[in-house]
Amino acid sequence: MASVDVSPLVSLRTEVGPLQEILASISNKWVATVFDLLTGTTELSYGELHRRSKGASRKMLSATLRDLVRDGLVQRRPETGSVPNRVYYRLSELGRSLVATLDGLREWADNHMELIDEARRTYYAPAEPRSR
To answer: Organism's domain of life (predicted)?
Structure first.
């Protein structure tokens, strides 16, 4: 396997820190969908992931899967000898270790979204006119 220079990535990590780096990686709206679909399954074909993702374009789903494979969160398995070629995806051990954290973040969001919505309404409300 060819060696890849990851020094630019390490340099980025030094600047922003590992938390910011992983948040940037998982903040794509389709990451949660992919994790939901792959959690509790052995693996799913690309076609099945696309059908179940409801709304993700093929381009966006491919980019999301490519990034998750790059980061070691998802494993890709091409099926040799099939026509057409099929590719299967599953969560890696590293990806499975992130599921509980994502579930906790989802629960927090579900429990606090009304408060966030209220804060946003207050923030964007027109200012009261000043009396002279």
So the answer is: Bacteria
Where in the chain are the domains? 19-123
Tens digit of each residue's pLDDT (9 = 90 or more) over 54-76:
999 999 999 999 999 999 999 99
Q: How far is CA 68 from CA 9, 30, 53, 57, 129, in A?
A: 15, 11, 16, 16, 50
The CATH-assigned architecture of domain 19-123 is Orthogonal Bundle (1.10)
Six-digit token string for 33 = 């969908």
Give the Cα separation of 34 and 40 in Å (integer).
12
Beta-bridge mates of residue 79: 86
- Residue 30's nearest CA partner among 71, 70, 1, 65 is 65
Q: What residues contact residue 93 under an 8 Å CB cut-off, 6+ apart?
A: none
Q: In this predicted structure, what is the pLDDT of residue 103?
A: 95
Using DSSP's 3-state secondary structure scheme, residue 40 falls into coil
